[in-house]
Amino acid sequence: MDQAKKIGILTSGGDSPGMNAAVVSVARCVMRKGLKLMGIKRGYNGLLGLSENPGDDIEYLDPETVLDIMDMRGTYLRTARCPAFLNPDVRKKAADDLREQGIEALVVIGGDGSYHGALELCRLGIPCIGIPGTIDNDLSYTEATLGYDTAVNVCVEAVRSIRATSRSHDRPAVVQVMGRNCGDIAMRTAIATGAEMVIVPEMEWDLQEVADRLSFLIKKGNTRATLIISEHCWHKMKPFDWRKVIADNNYIIHDDDPLTAERLALTLKLLSHTEARATVIGYTQRGAIPSAYDSAFAFEAGRMAVDLLSGDTSSFEHGFAIGVHDGRVYSTPFADALDENKPKYFDEELYHLINSL
Ligand code: ADP
Ligand code: F6P
Ligand code: MG
């Protein structure tokens, strides 16, 4: 940048472990260059009222504050989903207000939705850098997103404990993990724990087949198998009347009750005659302390963000997203990071291997 005095930073979308570490890294690198870092609160929501009440939504990140942030879980800056930012007039006003506040560039830590918002701001003349802060690992341009490694570690730890109790009681387990439409957390958790089955949103699946596999495993002597399911796998289930299985066994079920981990475990219990139990891991995946990998990735990403913003930003109309390629941190234009013609890689062979070992 032609010597920007102030850089803004915000976190957007679901919180993810490592967001704070990335803010700290950007803050340290910004200070080293003699610039100022302004934290913007609650994602793009913090840009909506900048001209009216800047003090409410914007905070100078001084060295003292930055030291505190490093040890915090969640995101110090808070995060939000901001539907109003889909409106071009709202974005135009936000860009004008940022300029009025002397904020000449922005670091956006978030997922693909947040990147779309950042790209629009670039087009309005605010140079933006994206750091992929989401546990989902659902961005095709990067081998890792910030928080994914931590989320997997949380799930692995949980599944190891669940498998111990499963073994003690000879009970199979259904464990639901997050990931939105991406099965990476589920797949990685499954291979790291030796889980016998995995269901992901990328692949069609058949409940009867899962029950048959469970019955087969039990017959072979494995009375404590683990099924890892990704939260949004339901829409990929082949038609199967699981409600009838539940109703025929005198459990209460209504026509509009959705399939859940709990109901899947009950259906498997009834079909495979085994005491299957369900656990939903939930927000422990998002509120965890970042792993060493995520903390180091955050450091490198923050450093690259500041390097890019302190260089020549005259060609920034497409912005840049930071990612990992061949194990190294790199940057690529938002348009490339969001390119729908580059679908996220899914390892189908690995999926079939997990479900057949
Ligand atoms: P994530 O960034 O984790 O993918 P969301 O999809 O919820 O999370 O997006 C976060 C925010 O990014 C949205 O609430 C909205 O403010 C902004 N956003 C999403 N899509 C767009 C878009 N197409 N144009 C502008 N802003 C967007
Ligand atoms: O994007 C992160 C994520 O945790 C997804 O895995 C999940 O689908 C979604 O956010 C849940 O969002 P919320 O916490 O707003 O329900
Ligand atoms: Mg997203």
Question: What are the main properties of this structure?
Answer:
357 residues, Rossmann fold, 7-stranded mixed β-sheet, 4-stranded parallel β-sheet, 13 helices, binds adenosine-5'-diphosphate, binds 6-O-phosphono-beta-D-fructofuranose
Provide an overview of this structure.
This protein has 357 residues and is an alpha/beta fold. Strand 10 (320-325) and strand 11 (328-332) form a beta hairpin. The model has no long low-confidence stretch (mean pLDDT 95). The termini are far apart. The strands form two sheets. A seven-stranded mixed sheet has the order 3-2-1-4-5-10-11, with helices on both faces. Helix 6 packs across helix 7 (184-193). The radius of gyration is 23 Å and the shape is elongated. The longest helix is centred in the middle third of the chain and has 22 residues, at 148-169. The chain folds into two domains: 6-147 and 290-337, Rossmann fold; 149-286, Phosphofructokinase domain (Rossmann fold). Helix content is 41%, strand content 15%. The chain contains 13 helices and eleven strands. Bound molecules: adenosine-5'-diphosphate, 6-O-phosphono-beta-D-fructofuranose (F6P) and magnesium ion. The site of adenosine-5'-diphosphate has 18 residues, from helix 5.
